[in-house]
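Design a sequence for this backbone.
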């Protein structure tokens, strides 16, 4: 039966009754792992901007100073963690700035063909852990902890080099389209969680991918579990930009993360993402298949899975986002039960392939492979969320209140002037479809182009969104 869901704009734990709008959510029956929520007559709900000091504005390159006289907007929301609720009702949250402001770039020539590129507007940008406090009518940034390597040197957001053909890495470019050196210590922070048992932060790195242990005292990296060291090598075959997304520590002290989407086998995408479970005490690793919702989403391979939140032993929330079969953006929160799911860590079929090679779910069931069991908890867009996608999610200590962040683009976006026409006669506004040639000149489909890739300001700002569920997540 549908249940009544109240969504409220939340700025303090003690103010959950401030603004509630009725919406609906529907939990699917056990026989169907996914089911759409009922249409919702809820109006659009927006939250106030996060308050941060002017000193947090990021100085732009000299060539962009006139366009951004106040600097770049801080890019918050790459991961979100509810640290605690203080006695006065103040909610303490941790988040990350990501790897810095970037743009999609043109393809570049490599020895083995062409590769995707990313334009790093600030190549020396230092990813930072940010602490926010929410009390009354303010969500205020109160602390920043720059991330450093083991020697105390500030980390950068540039990608490490590829370790081979099976480990794709984007090519970093500067604003002049000149190649930047890969950074062996570079990090793409995509999730943060504080581990009270071990007094450390865990950060999900989207590059390698890796689980990074960080000191809360000075932000230094204390250790790392990566696809090259400690985790299965197959994880590094992820698409560039599709590594780990989100991290959480369970009540049993185990650390969980999830791949941003499905991995590929023999050139074809699987029908599930992978939840990775790490026990830091024993270094035992398990991997659990998390089924992608192919009943709702048009292209399961393009669905992003992330922002995992462990709320009980072997039970967690997963944020699943993509474009549905009707062309709409969808952000769905599922409760995933791993109790009966099988461990696929280093599992191969008789031909030596990973289980991603088996795209028929019936065949997987016939093999006895059980995936995580899913229950829909919240359809975020139907509940009033008006952003394209939520970048991060966390659960507060009451077990009912979900907090999301959006608006993490540093207040800028790419634009293309003088765009060339594609085969359909329409201007091509996707930078990745252009090829970079000698002297920084662009071409499209092998023909010279007068297109110019530029930057413009946006009104995109960090925002908090909150949903108060009708019951605790443990009851779904």
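Sequence:
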């Amino acid at each position: 039966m549908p249940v009544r869901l109240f969504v409220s704009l939340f700025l303090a734990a003690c103010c959950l009754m401030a603004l509630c709008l009725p919406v609906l959510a529907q939990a699917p029956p056990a026989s169907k792992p996914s089911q759409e929520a009922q249409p919702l007559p809820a109006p659009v709900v927006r939250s106030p901007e996060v308050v941060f000091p002017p000193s947090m504005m990021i100085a732009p390159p000299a060539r962009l100073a006139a366009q951004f006289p106040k600097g770049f907007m801080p890019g918050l929301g790459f991961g979100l963690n509810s640290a605690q609720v203080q006695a006065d009702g103040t909610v303490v949250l941790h988040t990350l700035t990501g790897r810095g402001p970037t743009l999609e770039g043109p393809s570049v020539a490599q020895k083995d063909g062409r590769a995707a590129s990313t334009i790093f507007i600030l190549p020396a940008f230092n990813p930072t852990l940010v602490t926010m406090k929410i009390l009354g009518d303010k969500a205020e940034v109160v602390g920043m902890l720059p991330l450093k390597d083991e020697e105390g040197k500030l980390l950068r957001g540039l990608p490490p080099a590829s370790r081979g053909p099976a480990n794709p890495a984007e090519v970093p470019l500067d604003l002049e389209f000149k190649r930047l050196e890969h950074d062996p210590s570079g990090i793409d922070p995509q999730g943060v969680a504080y581990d009270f048992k071990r007094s450390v932060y865990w950060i999900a790195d989207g590059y390698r991918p890796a689980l990074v242990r960080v000191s809360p005292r000075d932000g230094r990296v204390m250790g790392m579990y990566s696809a090259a060291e400690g985790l299965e090598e197959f994880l590094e075959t992820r698409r560039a930009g599709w590594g780990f997304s989100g991290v959480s520590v369970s009540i049993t002290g185990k650390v969980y993360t999830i791949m941003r989407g499905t991995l590929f086998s023999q050139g074809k995408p699987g029908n599930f993402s992978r939840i990775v479970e790490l026990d830091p005490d024993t270094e035992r690793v398990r991997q659990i298949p998390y089924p992608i919702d192919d009943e709702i989403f048009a292209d399961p391979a393009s669905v992003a899975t992330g922002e995992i939140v462990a709320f009980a032993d072997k039970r967690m929330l997963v944020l699943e986002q993509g474009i549905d079969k009707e062309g709409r953006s969808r952000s769905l929160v599922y409760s995933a039960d791993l109790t009966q799911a099988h461990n696929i860590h280093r599992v191969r079929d008789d031909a030596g392939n990973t289980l991603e090679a088996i795209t028929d779910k019936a065949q997987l069931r016939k093999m006895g492979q059980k995936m995580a069991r899913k229950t829909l908890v919240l359809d975020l867009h139907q509940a009033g969320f008006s952003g394209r996608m939520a970048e991060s999610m966390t659960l507060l200590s009451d077990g009912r209140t979900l907090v999301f962040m959006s608006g993490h683009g540093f207040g800028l976006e790419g634009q293309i002037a003088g765009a060339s026409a594609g085969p359909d006669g329409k201007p091509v506004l996707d930078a990745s479809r252009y090829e970079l040639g000698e002297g920084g000149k662009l071409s499209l489909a092998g023909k010279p182009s007068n297109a110019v890739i530029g930057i413009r300001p946006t009104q995109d700002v960090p925002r908090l969104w909150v949903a108060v569920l009708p019951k605790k997540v443990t009851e779904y």
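The chain has a mean pLDDT of 87.
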